[in-house]
Amino acid sequence: MQLPVRSRLLLLLLLLLLRASGLRAGERSSSAMEEITTEKEAEESHRQDSVSLLTFILLLTLTILTIWLFKHRRVRFLHETGLAMIYGLIVGVILRYGSPSSSGHDKPFSCSQEDRPFTTLLINVSGKFFEYTLKGEISPGKIHNVEQNDMLRKVTFDPEVFFNILLPPIIFHAGYSLKKRHFFRNLGSILAYAFLGTAVSCFIIGNLMYGVVKLMKLVGQLSHKFYYTDCLLFGAVISATDPVTVLAIFNELHADVDLYALLFGESVLNDAVAIVLSSSIVAYQPTGENTHAFDAAAFFKSVGVFLGIFSGSFMMGAVTGVVTALVTKFTKLHCFPLLETALFFLMSWSTFLLAEACGFTGVVAVLFCGITQAHYTYNNLSVESRSRTKQLFEVLHFLAENFIFSYMGLALFTFQKHVFSPIFIIGAFIAIFLGRAAHIYPLSFFLNLGRRHKISWNFQHMMMFSGLRGAMAFALAIRDTATYSHQMMFSTTLLIVFFTVWIIGGGTTPMLSWLNIRVGDHAPSVEEINESRWLYFRVGVDPDQDPPPSNDSFQVLQGDGPDSERGNRTKQESAWLFRLWYSFDHNYLKPILTHSGPPLTTTLPSCCGLLARCLTTPQVYDNQEQLREEDSDFILNDGDLTLTYGDMTITANGSSGSRTATTSLDGRKTKSSSEEALEHELGMGDHEVTSRGTRLVFPLEDNA
Amino acid sequence: MQLPVRSRLLLLLLLLLLRASGLRAGERSSSAMEEITTEKEAEESHRQDSVSLLTFILLLTLTILTIWLFKHRRVRFLHETGLAMIYGLIVGVILRYGSPSSSGHDKPFSCSQEDRPFTTLLINVSGKFFEYTLKGEISPGKIHNVEQNDMLRKVTFDPEVFFNILLPPIIFHAGYSLKKRHFFRNLGSILAYAFLGTAVSCFIIGNLMYGVVKLMKLVGQLSHKFYYTDCLLFGAVISATDPVTVLAIFNELHADVDLYALLFGESVLNDAVAIVLSSSIVAYQPTGENTHAFDAAAFFKSVGVFLGIFSGSFMMGAVTGVVTALVTKFTKLHCFPLLETALFFLMSWSTFLLAEACGFTGVVAVLFCGITQAHYTYNNLSVESRSRTKQLFEVLHFLAENFIFSYMGLALFTFQKHVFSPIFIIGAFIAIFLGRAAHIYPLSFFLNLGRRHKISWNFQHMMMFSGLRGAMAFALAIRDTATYSHQMMFSTTLLIVFFTVWIIGGGTTPMLSWLNIRVGDHAPSVEEINESRWLYFRVGVDPDQDPPPSNDSFQVLQGDGPDSERGNRTKQESAWLFRLWYSFDHNYLKPILTHSGPPLTTTLPSCCGLLARCLTTPQVYDNQEQLREEDSDFILNDGDLTLTYGDMTITANGSSGSRTATTSLDGRKTKSSSEEALEHELGMGDHEVTSRGTRLVFPLEDNA
Questions:
Q1: pLDDT reported for residue B575
Q2: Cα-trace Rg, chain B
């Protein structure tokens, strides 16, 4: 019911006159008019929001249907994330060149204001007051862009959406679905790659890019400012690897579990490191005129910021995980899976908010929360809650990840401020290649000095190859695109992600065979997987905890050097630090936080007897051996345990999922020690005694 | 790093001078200063958002833990929603009286502007441009409230959050978890209560409230405008019942399934009716000066709006459900539960967005989408996907519902514009009591003329009693609180919700016994429920589809009048319209959308043979009897089927979950007709032949 402008003006005039005379009816109709106008605008805006979200849902639906088709036909050259990007690209093209340009709704209005901008403004429109909130700053050169394509604007999200809504489920799921055994076994290497490696990579890429920038200035390709800190920031952003495609293929083909653990562990942790590193670089603010000279005080402040944020976020995540573990341990919530699942979800979400409220990084906190929950809380949940929580976060992760990758494809066309510079792009590709090489090979060399089970050259080449970039790099790059340099960095990051996901991701399977990396002898069909999942589910063993046994049994049968050495790995390999941590975890943390043994009443000194009794639940005495078994996957009997204490080579027998060992292990309760448990986990765990067909396992070892 | 005001002004002055002289360094530092200032404000705002969300998470966590405690001790006088409200109240008190008042951040700035308000503003602050977006209108008298308690503002949500984020999962879950059999059996009555009843209730309450308003004006209690349309709007808003507490208790105590179905069905549908009714009343805009006189044209336009929005939303929901059913039928997605669940979720969400984008009501659309999905798509999902989707929406529903109820408690103290008027409040209570009476009793009388199985007086009293208000009434009331009248309506609605949920909800159990409404002979313990769920799950029968058999078997054994009549209900009770719908659904819709029989190749005329062959999947021939069985819950054998065609009284035998009937029913394939299936569902379904202990079921009936 919009009247033409002239009538509206007349009405306003009438309004002013009527106001003066105090007649209410007229006031009502004109205010009604403006109400309608405002309402229609709000409605229109709401409708556009719905349409833009619908676009994404369409993208995701197409992606899902195509993924199904690919899985159906065992297509492996294109992973779901690459697919989502392609669809995003297509829709981006349609939106960019298909939809009408300026619709004239958003005309900028200039109103001068001294002092600083306020968060809230009240604008007086003919006597009615309207409230406006601060959205952000627009650089002067881009004002005309405000009058831009409505549709493109609507599908452009505030970058904080990624950090507040989309990344947390992805990162939490990565932590929660960790393959714990292999992760902790390679913990030292993973930490080295993640921390040292990312720092090295950042530094090298940053310096190389600074050289490239200098070159660009030399040939006159660059007219804007591009500081050294910007290059370092680019280095940090682009160091966040995300080998989703590679890991998915590894999973499907049952490639080497240690390689999987190294890559996976490195990728989740270096995401965390990259975020905090980029925050510290941004926080680098030297005093004085030249804001980009080296200032030792500011440098150490940045280092302090890094350590502070990282450890603070770590503490937040761990604390929430611990609280959830205690709550699920001391209440009978497991009788009510719905309540338990809801509580689990809320506590995990609260980690994020708590970290953000305290000024730390929410995403890093949820990572460590996920790891803690997987390590402690998971054991306290009921069987149904375990599957519910896994499924809940799995579906959230799936949707969020494909959403981000679709958005990446879309952003190539909808982002209005791209800056593509060929020299910079080529330089960036070279830099990340060199950075990855400088990260992987030297570190592997040093790690191999300490590892018993060396990281072979093939593995190193594979890791070198698997430096895909993805969601985290994108989110970090899009976070701040205010300046020319940042826009160039964002555009380059986008291209790098496209290239690595499509080309390198697509080349994973050929590369695996070229490098002769062993894969499982057969990839089980989907029905087999589903059926086996049912089997495991019924007998209470979770196949998702660790890779399925067929892989390990196949490997053990290989019989060549590295495998037979594994049995010797127990004592020598495990670094002192790890063994220290393990004994602390096994003797104190797990008994406090879960129902596992050994009971605190035996391990704590007598002065803490009361505390020990409070914290020990009756289930401990039943579960003591059960938990250890679950950690080591399948059954082990007396014979296996004595293996490390004698020269006997025995034939292990058993069938998947049998629980007969429980009784036979009772007699060993008195001998339980963390040493034994450690060997149990590290050494024995390898020799899973599943028999498929007529294969038997012959563990060979001696106590050196 | 915030400098004091004087230094900032000096800096700005310096800035202006430096700008004039063109020195970049100064510009960088002062722009850095403003950047920091803006960033700090944004950071502070983000932190406050996190803290406010954390408050809600704390509320929900407390609620969950207390719910567990209550369930543990079988406390029934306080349901989880009432509990959530109490915690919300407590936190509201703390926030209102505990936190500091104005923090001075949000100072309003007045800038005059002619013409209409724009959606986007560009404000020029010393040469830098900042973008502001329109938030909403502030009434002149409340300007000073903008400078209000920051904390209270942060925990106050935009009312659209309820309609866009919180209500859809609740309403979808209501539709998706419908107890189909009893719902469709009482469909006519449910539709009558929902549509006619809500309209009657709205009209009566509206008129009564108008009288109250007149009274208030008379005694000088009311100085603002309060129109007739406002009263009608109040009537529509407050007619949305939400007997969550009552239904939960019914469920737990296994009260009469028909009563449950009537109450539940009425509540979900009258939510939908209330939303659309309130939208139509708001859309009532007569031409001319007096905007609140009766204008026939405007009236019919409102009726048209109602019908248009309702049917449009219905179509949207049904279409999306149908599309999902077809997709899940013709792809092998059921091999991949994750993909299937994700697709299901996306399609259901898209219903909402599609409806909103087209100008209909998203919440109504998701209701019908949920019903359609439950009726068709559910049958196509794999077993794992069925449980995954149910669990996913169950947890979303749980969280959203308790969130809203917590917010209600909070809103009593955080909402800044309450208007409590004793006369209005008392009048409202009387009006809703009378409105409910005028809604239930006359309608039941008329319905009983057509029903075979009358709605007894006790049932009517119980339904009268169960008029609780909840989330929908609250959301509709809070949607628009701009004017004095609407604020009074909102405050009154809040009090009504408190009263009905706490007092009436708490009195449900005593009322059930006072009215002698039969309940199940024992409420199974949680372990029993879990165990039985496992049992059903293994053999593929979903207990959540319909109430557990113990209830029905108990009732059949009652042997008094109404029950034995049930067997006669088959032919006479089912209204002609329902039978028509049923045969259409059974013969055409279900075969098209699911794998159920009869095969389209037999039911469609030969001209559509090609189409029929395309739409018929091979599974149809296997599933033909299986689906019918699932609908009717447990097994039936030949003897039961012949029951309706003879005078034989036979002993039905069988055990829960057995599938032996499949083979015995084969011989009956040739006789399958919709009539038979109908009787099967309506009549035979009652006589579930479960035997618990030594109880046997003796169905008595004759073909009158």
A1: 63
A2: 30
Contacts of A87 in chain B (CB under 8 A): none
User: If you count them, how many residues does chain B have?
Assistant: 704
Between A60 and B121, residue with greater pLDDT: A60
Please, are residues A528 and A163 in contact by the beta-carbon 8 Å criterion?
no
Strands (E), B230-389: none
Ordered mean pLDDT values, 10 residues apiece, chain B (704 residues): 50 45 42 57 80 88 90 82 92 83 52 58 65 59 52 77 90 88 84 93 94 91 85 94 87 84 91 92 71 74 91 94 91 88 94 92 94 92 93 94 93 90 94 94 91 87 92 92 91 95 90 81 50 42 38 31 40 61 82 79 74 75 52 34 33 36 38 52 42 36 36
From the number of C-beta atoms within 10 Å of its C-beta (0-12, 13-18, 19+), residue A352 rates as buried
Which of A64, A145, A363 is the mutation pick for testing B, counting most B CBs within 10 A?
Answer: A64
Q: Tell me the pTM.
A: 0.77
What pLDDT, in 10s, does the model give residues B185-212? Answer: 888 889 999 999 999 999 999 999 999 9
Whole-angstrom Cα distance, residue A393 to residue A396? 5
**pLDDT score, position B535:** 43
For residue A645, count other CB atoms closer than 10 A to its CB: 11
Query: Do residues B80 and B499 make contact, with C-beta atoms less than 8 angstroms apart?
Result: no
Q: Annotate A423-492 with DSSP letters as a single string.
A: HHHHHHHHHHHHHHHHHHHHHHHHHHHH-SS---HHHHHHHHHT--B-HHHHHHHHT---SHHHHHHHHH
Shortest Cα distance, chain B CAs vs residue A584, angstroms: 31
Q: Which two tokens stand for residue B377?
A: 């798509």
Tally of residues, chain A: 704
Give the pLDDT confidence score for residue B292 in this predicted structure. 59
Encoded amino acid at A399, one letter? L
- How many CB atoms are closer than 10 A to CB B567? 22
The one-character DSSP state at A643 is: G
Q: Could you tell me which residues come within 8 angstroms of residue B457 by beta carbon, excluding any fewer than 6 positions away?
A: none
Buried b (16+ CB within 10 A) or exposed e, B523-548: eeeeeeebebbeebeeeebbbebbbb
- Whether the complex's predicted ipTM is more than 0.85 is answered with no
Nearest CB to A131: which of B65, B136, B395? B136
**Dihedral over alpha carbons B472, B477, B478, B479 (to 10 degrees):** 90
Task: Give the pLDDT score at A326.
Answer: 92
Q: How far is A585 from chain B (nearest CA, A)?
A: 28
Q: Which amino acid is at B169?
A: P
Q: Which residue of B has its CA nearest to A134?
A: B132
- Please name the residue that has the structure tokens 């609507």: A154
Confidence at residue B670, expressed as pLDDT on a 0 to 100 scale: 40
Q: Do B135 and A136 touch (CB under 8 A)?
A: no
Structure tokens at B480: 């628009």
CA B103: distance to chain centroid? 39
**Gap between the Cα atoms of B88 and A209, Å rounded:** 54
Angle made by CA atoms B255, B259, B264, in degrees to the nearest 5: 105
Q: What is the mean pLDDT of residues A438-442?
A: 93
In whole angstroms, give the CA distance from residue A667 to residue B631: 53
Question: For residue A113, what pLDDT band results from cuts at 50, 70 and 90?
Answer: low
Unique residue bearing structure tokens 């627009």: A138
Decide if A271 contacts A472 (C-beta within 8 A): yes
**Residues in chain B within 8 Å Cβ distance of A127:** 140
* Average pLDDT of the residues in A437-447: 93
Residue with tokens 């009006």: B431
Q: Do B104 and A114 meet the contact criterion of CB atoms below 8 Å apart?
A: no
Strands (E), B274-317: none
Q: Give the strand pairing for B120-125 and B128-138.
A: antiparallel
Per-residue model confidence (pLDDT) at position B404: 93
Residue pair A537/A387 in contact (Cβ under 8 Å)? The answer is yes
* Residue A350 contacts residue B54 (beta carbons within 8 Å): yes
- Check: CB of residue A697 under 8 Å from CB of residue A553: yes
